[in-house]
Amino acid sequence: YLSHTVQTRILNPAFLPMLLRTLRATLFPHNGLAPARQPPSEEEAKAIKRRCAATLLGLLPTTVASAFFANKIQADHLRQVEELLDCLDDSYLNKHLIFAIVELIVLRLVPELGDGGVQALLEERLG
């Protein structure tokens, strides 16, 4: 179903120029790049990480959090979640995570790529 929709709605030659213009206007407003984003300061990064940890901790019921973290002290739970988030500070790990997510999305959209790869699929389709 998804493949048919993509073929008829998005990759239709009649809609492709309009789609590309819309995509370009969305990604590059006023025909230029957006201004560079300022990276957060060290204090802002800590505050962002603390909010993220608090939000993640808020998703857990208190009984599950108490059992998982082996105590009932909320501050300890928050500190442990922040320590778990420290693994996301590694840029090398983040690159692999992004590649894995993109690969998963591509395989969901085109499942036949998972069987043999791009080259095998091209040879199969082109003869």
Secondary structure layout plus pairing:
Elements: H1 2-10, H2 16-27, H3 42-59, H4 62-69, H5 74-85, H6 91-109, H7 113-116, H8 118-126
Give a structural overview.
This is PXA domain-containing protein. The chain is mainly α and 127 residues long. The protein has a domain at 90-127. Helices cover 72% and strands 0% of the residues. The chain is built from 8 helices and no strands. Helix 3 (42-59) crosses helix 5 (74-85). The longest helix has 19 residues, at 91-109. The mean pLDDT is 86.
Helix content: over 70%
Mean pLDDT value: 86
First CA to last CA: what distance? 26 Å
Q: Classify the beta-strand content into a percent band.
A: under 5%
What's the order of the H and E elements? HHHHHHHH
Number of beta-strand segments: 0
In terms of structural class, how would the helical and strand content be classed?
mainly alpha
Low-confidence stretches: none
Report the biggest beta sheet as strand number plus sense, adding barrel if it closes: none
* Overall morphology: extended
How many helices? The count is 8
Rg of Cα set: 22 Å
Key attributes of the depicted protein:
single chain; 127 residues; extended; mainly alpha
Short description:
Helices cover 72% and strands 0% of the residues. It has 127 residues and is mainly α. It comes from Didymosphaeria variabile.
